[in-house]
Amino acid sequence: MILIPGFRIEQINNKANGRVNLIGNSEIKIGNERRTRQFILPGIGAEYHIGSTEIYANYSHSYRPVLFSDLTANPITDIIDPDLEDAKGYNIDLGYRGKIKDYLFFDVSGFILQYNNRIGVIAQQKVDGSFYNYRTNVGNSQSKGIEALLEFSPTKVWMKNSTIGHLTLFSSIAIIQARYANFNVITRQGNQLVETSLHNKKVENAPENIIRTGITYTKKAFTFTTQYSYVSEAFSDASNTVTPTANGVNGLIPSYKLVDLSGTYKFSEMFFVKSGINNVLSEKYFTRRAGGYPGPGIMPAEPRNFFITVGVKL
Predict the structure, then answer these.
(1) Would the pTM of this model clear 0.90, i.e. be above it?
(2) Cα–Cα distance between 292 and 105 in angstroms, integer?
(3) What is the pLDDT along the chain (314 residues), one digit of tens a residue?
């Protein structure tokens, strides 16, 4: 049994001041912001070895600091919470991994990622009836799931001294459930503020299933791999909007499938050439939607493309 404790001491200093825009002759300035804080991030890892396999576990604290963009919201339409806090959380994982000789490798694990004090924007109304966006800590989310990886070479089991090369089958899968916990959102609808809860809504840009599988053929200095990938659908916003909005910023991100080919030939330990074709079937898909540059709208992924690389290792 091996225990590995550890910790990090973090000191963060945020400063913001100056002009962010100019409308006519009027300067749009941000308030002078300065925030300094220190905290400790503890963690611990554990391993228990069973022959050539091991059970492992890890626990660690994490954080997402208040960013410059969080402190420089538009002063005309936005107000920043003076008590805005860094988002914090923790990560836990437990798994079992190992290898059997040179023909089998596996790694199976489960994880929990807790994300507290997420920073967001809610709509508010002033006494004079005008509306503004309030940037503050709005709620929590949790991601949990299972990840598994398997590599198996049948030729190294039954044809160990094969003269025609070796095949290796590989597959990885991730099953993820990422949902919001206590997360209230206030939006403006006409001249009224409407509060809704995102409790149990799916976290944006978090597909539930990711599968990658394929075959690698190796003979002496030559290696060739074909890989199939599948990524399930995901939402682009926390409200889980399905039908795309007119500007394309919100809406469902459909699932997609890809086939990639690649090969490498080593002339020596120093020189090699690598080539491949990505997205062989020229799948039309996208992985995210953007509200700013170069948006608004969907960000299309690359169509079929070819690459070749010549390398020198010194």
Answers:
(1) no
(2) 43
(3) 899 999 999 888 877 777 766 777 777 676 677 778 888 999 999 999 999 999 999 999 998 888 777 777 665 567 888 888 889 999 999 999 999 998 999 999 999 999 998 887 777 877 777 777 788 888 899 999 999 999 999 999 998 888 889 999 999 999 999 999 878 788 777 778 888 888 899 998 899 999 999 999 999 999 999 999 999 999 988 888 898 888 888 889 999 999 999 999 999 989 999 999 999 999 999 998 887 667 788 989 999 999 999 999 88
The DSSP code sequence of 181-194 is EEEEEEEEETTEEE
C-alpha distances in Å from residue 287, one per residue of 37, 88, 166, 175, 313: 36, 26, 35, 18, 34
| CA angle at 20 for the pair 19 and 26, rounded to the nearest 5° | 65
